Amino acid sequence: MNLKLENISSIENNTLQITGSKSETNRLLILQALYPNIEIENVSNSDDSKLMQRALRSNEVVIDIHHAGTAMRFLTAYFAVKKGRETILTGSKRMQERPIKILVNALRQLGCAISYEKKEGYPPIKILGRQPISNQVTLKANVSSQYISALMLVAASLPDGLVIILNGKVTSVPYINMTLSLLKDVGIAGTFENNVITILSNNDDLSQKVRVESDWSSASYFYSIVALANINDSVTIGSYKKESYQGDSALIEIYRDLGVETSFDDNIITLTKVSNEIRLPEGLDLSNSPDIAQTIAVTCFGLGLRCYLTGLHTLKIKETDRLEALKTEIEKLGGSVTITQDTLRLESSKSIKADVSIATYNDHRMAMAFAPLALRNSLYIENADVVSKSYPDFWSDLKKLGFKIL
Ligand SMILES: O=C(O)C1=C[C@@H](OP(=O)(O)O)[C@@H](O)[C@H](O)C1
Ligand SMILES: C=C(OP(=O)(O)O)C(=O)O
């Protein structure tokens, strides 16, 4: 499905209910599989969460988790410690290019039996579930925090809990803290101090009810829309918490510099365009919130603002190489972008070409990040249904704001 977004000059103020965080949901689904009396409210309707639910219900040997990174990593740890279960975990073509060796090696240290079905270091993998023989593991922490969260999620179900020692600079730290916070919410004790995570074993019949906060990464597209809208334009979205577990709530501070003010009314937030005096800090470090890098780069492009984003080393191994994809698509629109392994520099530009067709590379965030540019010029979004990976209602929500989508 290719969509045309007509140029619009303003938005209609409206209130939207955003689906639950896919990161929180996919953690809680693993915990619920281990402790069946846990209750989850506001479950994400994302494909990635549906795939996770389906995988956890499945009795098949082969489980295909398509593009869902968290499902791939969390289920690897889950099935590895499930005694007697044989599983082959596979995924999309891109998933077969996303590395998993660090997690597999960590699980092997615990005595788990995992082998590669095709390329060493990548899915598909064959897992023979076993009870671990050790309660301590060491792994590299600078490639993906998902490997670490995966181990943390199964840790309390092991007879002696787990001590996880992290090597090197830890990336995407808020996601590790999110895992720890959710473990605590369901009644599991743990600490994360000086690169050592300790999770205590827990065999109780945990039965807490946990409410998933709405997805902050999905909120980023509304921050971008409001930043590109007119003074006093606003969008109201729910349900969000002032003290979020999601690192992407850094949007509040980042977009304040781009003229957007956030106000809380209980758990509903209103984003309002308050200023045209805009400037991002030089060298904005996004290593704690990699998923909003595309949104911010495209907002700056739409505002004609230069920006220099750093800490982007994980972007190359996500749904696509997001650095290459951003450069290619922004340059099609007339922008100028320089990338390295972990940075992106965008030059300021005065105009945006009309009717450019944006390729999305099977990456939901490419589609959603470029859509707000309809406030500057008409454009096409290719394979627009990719948004369902995290936010199936994205296009219908945009229509509620007055976007003209054909
Ligand atoms: O744990 C999670 O829920 C996630 C962690 C991040 O990945 P990395 O730790 O690989 O950067 C993030 O990009 C991803 O969308 C979700
Ligand atoms: C990187 C992402 O997801 P995952 O790694 O879980 O596929 C994302 O949602 O932007």
TrEMBL record:
Pfam families: EPSP_synthase
Family: Belongs to the EPSP synthase family.
Coiled coil: none
Gene field: aroA
Record InterPro entries: Enolpyruvate_Tfrase_dom (IPR001986), Enolpyruvate_Tfrase_sf (IPR036968), EPSP_synthase (IPR006264), EPSP_synthase_CS (IPR023193), RNA3'P_cycl/enolpyr_Trfase_a/b (IPR013792)
The reaction(s) this protein catalyses: 3-phosphoshikimate + phosphoenolpyruvate = 5-O-(1-carboxyvinyl)-3-phosphoshikimate + phosphate
Annotated function: Catalyzes the transfer of the enolpyruvyl moiety of phosphoenolpyruvate (PEP) to the 5-hydroxyl of shikimate-3-phosphate (S3P) to produce enolpyruvyl shikimate-3-phosphate and inorganic phosphate.
Pathway the protein takes part in: Metabolic intermediate biosynthesis; chorismate biosynthesis; chorismate from D-erythrose 4-phosphate and phosphoenolpyruvate: step 6/7
Taxonomic placement: Bacteria, Pseudomonadati, Bacteroidota, Flavobacteriia, Flavobacteriales
Protein name: 3-phosphoshikimate 1-carboxyvinyltransferase
All residue ranges annotated as the Enolpyruvate transferase domain in the record: 60-398
